[in-house]
Design a protein that fits this description.
Blueprint: E1 11-12, E2 15-16, E3 22-25, E4 28-31, H1 48-59, H2 75-81, H3 85-90, H4 95-109, H5 111-131, H6 134-145, E5 151-154, E6 170-174, E7 177-188, E8 195-201, E9 211-217, E10 223-228, E11 239-250, E12 254-255, H7 261-297, E13 299-300, E14 303-304, H8 309-338, H9 343-367, H10 379-388, H11 396-407
Parallel strand pairs: 5-8
Antiparallel strand pairs: 1-2, 3-4, 6-7, 7-11, 8-9, 9-12, 10-11, 13-14
Helix pairs in contact: 1-4, 4-5, 4-7, 4-8, 5-6, 5-7, 7-8, 7-9, 7-10, 8-9, 9-10, 9-11
The structure holds flavin-adenine dinucleotide.
The site of flavin-adenine dinucleotide (FAD) has 21 residues, from β5, β7 and α11.
Length: 409
């Protein structure tokens, strides 16, 4: 029987830590808070065994098969979300590096839990942290960073995916309220979220300067969730289309000024892409490790397939790409920690990590031969889960646009 998450000891390099102890891992220092689960990871990945074990216990056994089907059993997610709290609120000098490593490890266990946390943390909490007033932070950030509530991010519309400036959801000011009408689609966490960071048009004539952001309670009349999307992968990550019909949002819920929405969306995605890069590396690492272990066991022509040079070279390429992806991702995270601009670096990390994860998952299936095509093993799930990382939070083509625009300025 699996121990409840709260009962598992926090383990770092096989040393159990006491509450109140401070862990110093080269560039990262975290204090273990009595009574609160504390994330322990270092820039070199130290401590990840315990985190991985927690995540595997949390989600992996059924991760590929879980669908939400309208259920709102959030207990496993809530336990996982607790792990983001020290990163969100403590603001250590390496918060984003630790966060990237955590999302990698969580995604190694379950990519769906990885993106659930990444969306709540990077796309919902981060803009509130950066642009919210004190009153907004109290109500709309604290419970979401503490794992009590779950947030989502509403930017995409049927005609506004890669071209996010094509927003058609409108917010019309009426006294101390705005009246919102429109549609958002592909909203991760949408079926179960408590609040949304929502992007709307307050002035259609001004293009991107007419976009305004709000934070919205999903229980507001006129916030209409549609049925959950059926997807190729990340099947335990709920997403859906949401219609807004004459939804009234108080002026106090506006995030930033009118017209600042596009800037908020783009700067939020700069951070979000670090999370998706980390998610891709986690998926790739799981696929790599399963392929490596299988290669040692499976025999053909009287020897383990790991002794065939063709397999050895595939494994060498897989781990080299993943480690390169991790370095790019940690560089972007470290720039974010230092407060420096990181759009180009986040795009590079997301582009490379997502494409590497797909190449790695493809090779992992190949190394498994026929078994790689079977639903009996997790490797087919990693293959399906990897695909989305090249699409959401900007496709690979959009990342190439961001990088080349920065180069050619
Ligand atoms: C599972 C899932 C979860 C998601 N979660 C969220 C969420 O939580 N919140 C949210 O707001 N959105 C979310 N999205 C939306 C996601 O960000 C968009 O799907 C993505 O940005 C691509 O937009 P699109 O689907 O409209 O594709 P399109 O923009 O129609 O692109 C189609 C193709 O054309 C290419 N293309 C487009 N423009 C160019 C160009 N200028 N140059 C070269 N190629 C180009 C694209 O790269 C792509 O290959 C999610 C999507 C999925 C599938």
């Amino acid at each position: 029987m699996r121990a409840p998450i709260s009962d598992l000891p926090l383990v770092l390099d096989d040393v159990s830590l006491q509450a109140g102890a401070t862990v110093i891992l080269s560039r990262l220092s975290l204090t273990i808070t009595p009574g609160a689960p504390t994330l322990i990871v270092g820039p070199n990945g130290a401590g990840k065994t315990s985190l991985l074990r927690l995540c595997m216990g949390l989600a992996a056994p059924s991760a590929g098969r879980v669908t939400w089907g309208g259920r709102t059993d959030r207990a496993p997610l809530r336990r996982a979300i607790l792990f983001q709290r020290p990163v969100m609120l403590r603001r250590t000098t390496a918060a984003n590096v630790a966060y990237a490593l955590a999302i990698e490890e969580i995604s190694r266990g379950c990519a769906s839990v990885g993106v659930t946390l990444s969306v709540n943390n990077s796309l919902y909490c981060d803009p509130l942290l950066k642009y919210g007033t004190d009153a907004q932070k109290e109500r709309w950030l604290k419970p979401f960073a503490a794992g009590e509530k779950l947030g989502c991010f509403g930017l995409t519309e049927p005609q506004a995916g890669s071209d996010a400036a094509e927003q058609r959801t409108t917010a019309v000011r009426r006294g101390d309220k705005y009246v919102v009408n429109g549609t958002k689609n592909w909203i991760t966490n949408g079926p179960v979220a408590d609040a949304m960071v929502l992007f709307t048009m307050t002035d259609l004539s001004k293009g991107t300067k007419g976009i305004t952001a709000f934070v919205v309670d999903t229980g507001t009349p006129g916030f209409l969730r549609q049925k959950s999307d059926e997807k190729l992968g990340i099947c335990a990550s709920p997403s859906c289309t949401i219609f807004f019909e004459n939804m009234e949002v108080p002026v106090a819920n506006r995030l930033g000024q009118e017209g600042e929405g596009f800037k908020i969306a783009m700067s939020t995605l700069d951070g979000g892409r670090i999370g998706i890069a980390a998610q891709a590396i986690g998926i790739g690492m799981a696929a790599f490790e399963e392929a490596r272990d299988y290669a040692k066991l499976r025999k053909t022509f009287d020897v383990p397939i790991a002794q065939h040079q063709a397999i050895q070279f595939m494994l060498a390429d897989m781990i080299t790409e993943l480690e390169a992806a991790r370095l790019l991702t940690l560089r972007a995270a470290s720039l974010k920690d230092s407060g420096a601009r990181h759009s180009r670096e986040s795009s590079m990390a997301k582009l490379y990590a997502s494409e590497a994860a797909n190449r790695v998952a493809d090779k992992a299936v190949q190394i498994h031969g026929g078994m790689g095509y079977s639903k009996e093993l997790d490797v087919e799930r990693h293959f399906r889960d990897a695909r989305i990382t090249e699409i959401y939070e900007g496709t690979s083509e959009i990342q190439r646009l961001v990088i080349s625009n920065a180069l050619l300025k």
